[in-house]
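Q: Could you fold this chain for me?
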Amino acid sequence: MFLDAENSPVRGPSFLFETPRFVKMGTVFWPNYWHPKNTMFYINPDSLLWQLLDMPFIDMFEQESGQLVIDRRRHAAPLHLTLFYAFHPRGDTDLFRFAWLNLDFPFFTMESPSAIAGAYVVDGENPFPDFQNGSDAMVDAIWTKSLHFYAQNFTNLSFGGIEKYFNSLHLKAYNYK
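A: Sure. Below is the predicted structure, expressed as structure tokens.
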């Protein structure tokens, strides 16, 4: 299991090793906010990345790499390929997913991207509250704290709301900023 330094499990995550999906697949990934139709990383059908990886475009959410559950014995090959991809310091968000896809290794990705836990802040000039995110509310109770939240000079760090993408929503309506 890999948990980034900014992750704060709200319960012991060891149960993830016993889930049927992990037992079957040997790897569990969490989706990131970004989708090829709405991405800041340009991992869309026109990206040269797909030629570089010698694989066709795959229409799925990008990967959050802050928490991973991997059976290292069963998945040594994609871990080594990830290491090869990560040699240059350009980030790691999708490297695991690309290695697993490129080598055709099985993995399970949670059904929807994380929700966003944060606070609704009312601005005197705007009658509608602004949602200030503070943490990714990951499926299975793993939370990723956003350092951006702490830079906002909040004195009360409690969460006042959660915003979530629902799988029933068509991807054309999905937009994360």
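A (continued): Helices lie at 20-25, 49-52, 76-85, 95-102, 147-150.
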